[in-house]
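Exam revision sheet. Question 4 asks you to relate a sequence to its structure. Input first:
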Amino acid sequence: MQKDNSHSAVDLPPLPILLAPAGSPDALAAACAGGADAVYLGGKQFGARQFAANFSYEELVQAVRYAHLRGVLVYVTVNTLVAEREMKDALRYLLFLSSIGVDAVLIQDTGLLSCAKNYIPDLVLHASTQMGIHNVPGALYAAKNGCSRIVLARELTGEEIEEISDALSGYPVDLEVFAHGALCYAYSGRCLLSSLVGGRSGNRGMCAQPCRKNYKIIEGSFDHYGRTDNTHMTRKAGYLLSTRDLSLYPVLDRIVRLPIAALKIEGRMRSPAYVAIVTSIYRKALDAIRTGTFQPNPEDIADLAIAFSRGFTTGYISGLKYSEVMGRSYPGNQGYYTGSVLPAGGRAVKLKLVSEIFPRKGDGLVFRSEEWEEGYVLADEPVIHDGIAEFKVPFSVRPDAGVYITSRRELERKVRSILSDPDKRYNGLLTLSCSVEFSPAGEIFVAGTVKDMKRTWHRFEYTSRETASKAKTRPLTKEQIREQLVKTGGTLFSFSEIRIFGEEGWFAPMSVLNALRREILLAAEDAITLSWHKNTKQVSQVSDPPSKLSFNTNTINNAQDKREPCLAVLVSSITELNAARENGADRVYLALNDSPDNISCLSQNPHNTGIMVPGIIRQKEMDVFVSRLKQYASLGIRHILVDSVGIGEYIPGIDPAFSVSSYYGLPVTNAATMRALHNFEFCTLSPELSGQEISDILIANKTGPLPAICCQGLIEAAVTEDNLCKYAGISEGTGIALKDEKNYSFPVWCDESGRSHIMNSSEHSLITEYPWLYESGIRWFIVDARGRGEKYTGEMTRTWKRRMMPHLSAEEESRMKDTIIHMSYGGITRSGFKRGLS
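Answer key, structure tokens:
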């Protein structure tokens, strides 16, 4: 993005709303106090931040009430994958959220999205960033399937966002992007690293953040089974997968000119203090942009960093490359970098400042070099001259050490100011007009209207529980009653008018009038909040999922039961393809990123040949992708294996003769997802599923595509824009791997677009589970041999083809397992087969 200061507030498009995180009730109050237009939060289940405090059912009801009274929208995250056994509970949870008036829910699971659209049509749906939407086909799928907002992948540039927006111009859908907070290393929704390494799935809100750990890059040659052999260490080591934190604050005036409807602050795991200060700074910035007075404030930048920072980047959205997004030196909170230490004698510190922000008395400082770190609270004001700050500390400081401010009293005072009076910005903004009538019997009737933060009027009326009595000496005047009732200081309300009717001569103590005022304000609150609730009768009509969802069945699809098993092999070269064919593969899928110049031989046998397309196809790559696909079609190839739902729906538009199936990058964890993909030939179930979870899907899948499973190969743990091959400086033909702190090696390959694909450290194999899988209803078995070479592909295909023969002896089965272990990378694992989604 080129900087452009020529615009004024007059020609600004409508500003995006500010969306703040609320990981707890206290954080919700902090977000509202800081000036959020909307908050996003999660319940105790189905949310992508299971380690946040989150909200119980009753707390969700109160959260919606609290936010709506202040004119703040509430979005609830239901953005995890849903197992078959959980689908009914997930739908009932969505019904509950609809009934209490949440403004939208964020969804990842394709099956849950389909069910929500069909059976809870009034529920507003947002496509979570966990859906991994990064191109026009993905965005169109979300728009056509009920989403009114799409949270785009963090990897997109401003130009790509504009192109996606243009393609959506005919749909009632808008776009949302992240503005501040932690960045995932890999494409969201496609990362299995935490699940494979530690059994905590990021797709279930339980990511253990293995990307923040220490790794080393090793390199070596490939052996005849495609394994990295004769490895040696490179000089690349450290927190190699750790990203900096995103902060669009310095370029916010340019970002708001993009076609986006919402700016999101990441941080449901952060404290209320963090939420308050970050939200307030972005609120102030957006308000200044609206008036044409915005200039990035160095103090605000420092406050953002002190609140929490791994070092800031303006990210891919501003046009930066991966090298400017990565923060490989340190994975934790760094604070605000003030400069580096110059050589000095004793315990005196000379700090070469890098900005006008310098340490102050009371600041918490951290001195950090590559192998040394020390903290200190500055006892005295430093002496500043010629860009150098001088002060003393009670320890020796290493020259060239970086100095970071990690706490500041002034920032703490700002936070206290926000949190001590959270309703300061809202006090008196709800306008009341009411009439109070005293009956001859002393009953008090109240009727009125209240104007909410959106300038909508709501009516209320009720009979008070309080009563008045006949005055014996000095009756209350109408003015005295009115004067007592208007005392709403410190609340959200203010009276524009109070009319008093009925007979005079009544008396009521001040306690009665105070109670009457509280009743009026509560009735006004109820009038506002209940207006957001769905009609109970309307909700009850869909309170039980329709029978067609087939939750409770106990037989597998009879049509599937009669089919013979088929073996598909995934390859990345023509030599691998020929090896798979020669050893009995029923179908071979060639990775699309193979050079089209080498594929003319595919026309000789196109019927059992397919093409596997990449899971990530950026919008700028779509033209080349379509051109290549048409070239394959001209050879008679019709089978296409996709790794994303948007591309899967898009491909038949290129050529209606294409037969589409899906691989596990398009996660299938329930039968509803299979039904949503009803036009596909087969769908590969997620490798995170347990045997029981697989069985549940197969029993429920009556009408969907055929079920498939990856039975052998390295599971892709992550795909990222970070080009590790280029970073490591390896030569062509050299293999690299990441070695973690436990000495496990994760092989890495980089595609022609420069993306890195990190594979699991052990090879996935369900060789011993095959009989059960077949009897349960799996009919497509997939061996992933991409990049493993001709020998591995041929021998593994032959072994699995033999394994699929009936009536093998236990001795032969044991020999086959030994053969597979011999060929495998790092031994074999069943991935999630025993553990399941967790």
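Marking note for examiners. The chain has 24 helices and 39 strands.
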